Amino acid sequence: FAGGLGVEIDLGAVPQEGCANDAAALLFSESNSRFIAEVRPADAAAFEAVLQESGAPFARIGAVTDAGRVVLKLGGAALVDEPIADLKAAWQKPLAL
Prior knowledge:
By secondary structure, the protein is α+β, with helices and mostly antiparallel strands. It contains 3 helices and 4 strands, in the order βααβββα. A hairpin with a 2-residue loop joins strand 3 and strand 4.
């Protein structure tokens, strides 16, 4: 939220071993050691090579954009396509005193 940038994610690219193939499971599954890493495009190949050597499942699932939108897709269909400012406001609203 702080940078006001956006993201475009393809949930179909998420490694799915042990996870149901539906949007809710792909978004909220708490599989052991699942994490998202942001890597500069210039460093992506080296980062992926290290992961490949480790034998851990991984995938490039999306990219940071300057569009200011969060776009989540599954099977080519947009599940979420919202301005980052709207999502930040919704997140902050229950925290307001």
